[in-house]
Specification:
The chain has helices at 2-20, 65-74, 78-82, 141-158, and strands at 43-49, 52-58, 97-102, 105-110, 166-171, 176-180. It has 188 residues and is of the alpha+beta class. It has a 4-stranded mixed beta sheet with strand order 3-4-5-6, covered by helices on one side. A two-stranded antiparallel ribbon has the order 1-2.
Protein backbone atom coordinates (compact mmCIF):
# COMPACT_ATOMS: atom_id res chain seq x y z
CA UNK A 1 0.00 0.00 0.00
CA UNK A 2 2.81 2.38 0.44
CA UNK A 3 3.48 2.36 -3.29
CA UNK A 4 -0.14 3.32 -3.90
CA UNK A 5 0.03 6.11 -1.33
CA UNK A 6 3.24 7.48 -2.89
CA UNK A 7 1.74 7.37 -6.37
CA UNK A 8 -1.39 9.13 -5.11
CA UNK A 9 0.70 11.80 -3.40
CA UNK A 10 2.79 12.39 -6.55
CA UNK A 11 -0.39 12.58 -8.63
CA UNK A 12 -1.86 15.13 -6.19
CA UNK A 13 1.32 17.25 -6.35
CA UNK A 14 1.36 17.12 -10.16
CA UNK A 15 -2.30 18.14 -10.30
CA UNK A 16 -1.67 21.04 -7.91
CA UNK A 17 1.24 22.27 -10.03
CA UNK A 18 -0.81 22.12 -13.22
CA UNK A 19 -3.70 23.91 -11.55
CA UNK A 20 -1.42 26.63 -10.15
CA UNK A 21 0.24 27.35 -13.49
CA UNK A 22 3.39 29.42 -13.74
CA UNK A 23 1.78 32.85 -13.51
CA UNK A 24 2.65 33.86 -17.09
CA UNK A 25 -0.24 34.96 -19.25
CA UNK A 26 -0.41 33.58 -22.76
CA UNK A 27 0.80 35.89 -25.55
CA UNK A 28 0.85 35.89 -29.30
CA UNK A 29 3.91 35.28 -31.43
CA UNK A 30 6.78 37.63 -30.51
CA UNK A 31 9.60 38.74 -32.82
CA UNK A 32 12.94 37.89 -31.23
CA UNK A 33 14.84 40.50 -33.27
CA UNK A 34 17.99 39.96 -35.26
CA UNK A 35 20.03 36.83 -34.58
CA UNK A 36 23.09 37.15 -32.37
CA UNK A 37 26.19 38.05 -34.35
CA UNK A 38 28.88 36.99 -31.91
CA UNK A 39 32.46 38.25 -31.94
CA UNK A 40 33.56 40.25 -34.96
CA UNK A 41 37.29 40.58 -35.48
CA UNK A 42 38.39 44.16 -36.00
CA UNK A 43 41.51 46.28 -36.13
CA UNK A 44 42.40 48.94 -33.57
CA UNK A 45 44.46 51.97 -34.58
CA UNK A 46 45.74 54.74 -32.32
CA UNK A 47 45.55 58.38 -33.37
CA UNK A 48 46.27 61.58 -31.45
CA UNK A 49 43.69 63.80 -29.79
CA UNK A 50 45.16 66.75 -27.91
CA UNK A 51 48.04 65.30 -25.90
CA UNK A 52 46.68 61.74 -25.70
CA UNK A 53 46.29 58.68 -27.86
CA UNK A 54 42.77 57.62 -28.80
CA UNK A 55 41.86 54.17 -30.07
CA UNK A 56 39.76 53.78 -33.19
CA UNK A 57 38.25 50.44 -34.16
CA UNK A 58 37.93 49.62 -37.83
CA UNK A 59 35.79 46.66 -39.03
CA UNK A 60 38.72 45.02 -40.80
CA UNK A 61 39.36 41.47 -39.58
CA UNK A 62 43.00 41.20 -38.54
CA UNK A 63 45.21 42.28 -41.40
CA UNK A 64 48.91 41.49 -41.14
CA UNK A 65 51.00 43.56 -38.76
CA UNK A 66 52.52 45.51 -41.68
CA UNK A 67 49.06 46.12 -43.20
CA UNK A 68 47.80 47.33 -39.81
CA UNK A 69 50.65 49.84 -39.57
CA UNK A 70 50.00 50.90 -43.17
CA UNK A 71 46.38 51.66 -42.17
CA UNK A 72 47.74 53.74 -39.30
CA UNK A 73 50.07 55.61 -41.66
CA UNK A 74 47.10 56.41 -43.94
CA UNK A 75 45.76 58.49 -41.06
CA UNK A 76 42.30 59.05 -39.65
CA UNK A 77 39.22 58.92 -41.85
CA UNK A 78 37.22 62.09 -42.52
CA UNK A 79 34.78 61.15 -39.74
CA UNK A 80 37.67 60.55 -37.32
CA UNK A 81 39.28 63.89 -38.27
CA UNK A 82 35.92 65.55 -37.63
CA UNK A 83 36.10 64.10 -34.09
CA UNK A 84 39.45 65.87 -33.62
CA UNK A 85 41.80 62.95 -34.29
CA UNK A 86 45.08 63.48 -36.12
CA UNK A 87 48.11 61.49 -37.18
CA UNK A 88 51.56 62.53 -35.96
CA UNK A 89 53.19 60.06 -38.39
CA UNK A 90 54.47 61.09 -41.79
CA UNK A 91 52.62 59.30 -44.62
CA UNK A 92 55.83 59.32 -46.69
CA UNK A 93 57.33 56.84 -44.21
CA UNK A 94 54.77 54.16 -45.04
CA UNK A 95 56.88 52.44 -47.68
CA UNK A 96 59.99 52.80 -45.52
CA UNK A 97 58.51 51.01 -42.53
CA UNK A 98 59.71 47.45 -41.84
CA UNK A 99 58.12 45.21 -39.23
CA UNK A 100 59.19 41.96 -37.63
CA UNK A 101 57.59 40.22 -34.69
CA UNK A 102 57.94 37.34 -32.30
CA UNK A 103 56.07 36.26 -29.21
CA UNK A 104 55.19 39.46 -27.30
CA UNK A 105 57.81 41.42 -29.26
CA UNK A 106 57.59 43.75 -32.28
CA UNK A 107 60.46 45.57 -34.03
CA UNK A 108 59.58 48.51 -36.25
CA UNK A 109 62.41 49.88 -38.38
CA UNK A 110 62.14 53.34 -39.93
CA UNK A 111 64.69 54.05 -42.62
CA UNK A 112 64.28 57.83 -42.27
CA UNK A 113 63.23 60.18 -39.48
CA UNK A 114 61.32 63.28 -40.46
CA UNK A 115 60.01 65.90 -38.06
CA UNK A 116 56.28 66.36 -37.90
CA UNK A 117 55.31 69.63 -39.52
CA UNK A 118 53.08 71.30 -36.99
CA UNK A 119 53.09 74.91 -35.80
CA UNK A 120 53.20 74.11 -32.08
CA UNK A 121 54.22 70.89 -30.38
CA UNK A 122 51.67 69.24 -28.13
CA UNK A 123 52.77 69.44 -24.49
CA UNK A 124 52.99 66.14 -22.63
CA UNK A 125 51.69 65.85 -19.06
CA UNK A 126 54.55 65.92 -16.55
CA UNK A 127 53.39 62.63 -15.00
CA UNK A 128 54.30 60.71 -18.16
CA UNK A 129 57.73 59.07 -17.99
CA UNK A 130 58.30 59.22 -21.76
CA UNK A 131 60.52 62.11 -22.91
CA UNK A 132 58.67 65.07 -24.44
CA UNK A 133 60.47 64.82 -27.77
CA UNK A 134 62.14 62.11 -29.75
CA UNK A 135 65.09 62.43 -32.14
CA UNK A 136 64.52 65.02 -34.86
CA UNK A 137 62.25 67.10 -32.60
CA UNK A 138 59.29 64.78 -33.16
CA UNK A 139 56.70 64.54 -30.38
CA UNK A 140 56.65 61.13 -28.74
CA UNK A 141 53.01 60.57 -29.51
CA UNK A 142 54.02 59.29 -32.95
CA UNK A 143 55.98 56.59 -31.11
CA UNK A 144 52.90 55.86 -29.04
CA UNK A 145 50.81 55.50 -32.17
CA UNK A 146 53.23 52.91 -33.55
CA UNK A 147 53.68 51.16 -30.20
CA UNK A 148 50.01 50.84 -29.22
CA UNK A 149 48.80 49.93 -32.72
CA UNK A 150 51.51 47.27 -33.18
CA UNK A 151 51.08 45.90 -29.65
CA UNK A 152 47.31 45.68 -30.04
CA UNK A 153 47.58 43.95 -33.40
CA UNK A 154 50.06 41.35 -32.15
CA UNK A 155 48.14 40.83 -28.89
CA UNK A 156 44.91 40.15 -30.81
CA UNK A 157 46.62 37.45 -32.87
CA UNK A 158 48.48 35.87 -29.94
CA UNK A 159 45.60 36.24 -27.43
CA UNK A 160 47.78 38.10 -24.91
CA UNK A 161 47.56 41.42 -23.06
CA UNK A 162 48.68 44.33 -25.30
CA UNK A 163 50.68 45.77 -22.39
CA UNK A 164 52.73 42.56 -22.31
CA UNK A 165 54.04 43.35 -25.81
CA UNK A 166 57.36 45.19 -26.10
CA UNK A 167 57.74 47.34 -29.20
CA UNK A 168 61.20 48.37 -30.35
CA UNK A 169 61.35 51.36 -32.67
CA UNK A 170 64.59 51.56 -34.59
CA UNK A 171 65.52 54.61 -36.63
CA UNK A 172 68.26 54.45 -39.24
CA UNK A 173 68.68 58.24 -39.52
CA UNK A 174 69.71 59.28 -36.93
CA UNK A 175 70.64 55.86 -35.57
CA UNK A 176 68.56 55.28 -32.46
CA UNK A 177 66.63 52.42 -30.88
CA UNK A 178 63.91 52.83 -28.27
CA UNK A 179 61.81 50.19 -26.53
CA UNK A 180 58.26 50.84 -25.32
CA UNK A 181 55.05 49.32 -24.01
CA UNK A 182 51.70 50.91 -24.79
CA UNK A 183 51.03 51.62 -21.11
CA UNK A 184 53.86 54.21 -21.18
CA UNK A 185 51.82 56.60 -23.35
CA UNK A 186 48.90 58.78 -22.28
CA UNK A 187 45.65 57.31 -23.57
CA UNK A 188 42.06 58.18 -23.06
Amino acid sequence: MTVHRMAAALLAVAAALVAAGCGISPTGVLDGGAPAEGFRPSTRLYFVSGSRLRAVTRPIPWPSLKETLDLLMDGPSAAERARGLRNDLEPEEQGQLKVTSGQAHVRITLSAARPVTRATPVPMPSSVAVPSEAPGGRPVLWMGQLTCTAAGALAARENIDPDAVTVVIEQKVPIRTDSFRCSEFPRG
